[in-house]
């Protein structure tokens, strides 16, 4: 299976609601998720550089490394039975003042954390990512998840600070 490296960036508005995109493309088509994307590995892009680039490309927000807090690293084995992912999750400290316009990848909406529990999101986000947001965004955690379709979805915390 291919191994891909990506970032997710958790952006909030001034009132603390979280910005999500309803994805028009796979993976996670028609589901809501934080913004992000794949590292440009051929350029030697770091996860921080990727988070800064993707945030600017997707929502027009200009960031520096100090605007981001890396709060988790998740290795997902066999996501959707086709790809292994290494994801870096960032809390964006700089608020997004207003809703960005729709882009080719999807449309945006702000949600309260409670509202996210009742919208369509990927199963791995529901089981792992939002739990990390709730419990570990002030520190750091490393997670290993087995997403093999023939197995029950499970994760192991490898480190938590």
TrEMBL record:
Highest taxon above the source species: Bacteria
Keyword terms: Hydrolase
Domain Nudix hydrolase positions: 2-133
CDD domains named among the record's database cross-references: NUDIX_MutT_Nudt1
Name of the protein this chain belongs to: NUDIX domain-containing protein
Hydrolase listed as a keyword: yes
A matching Pfam family: NUDIX
Keyword Hydrolase recorded: yes
Organism from which the protein derives: Intestinicryptomonas porci
InterPro entries reported in the protein's UniProt record: NUDIX_hydrolase-like_dom_sf, NUDIX_hydrolase_dom
Cofactor(s) needed: Mg(2+)
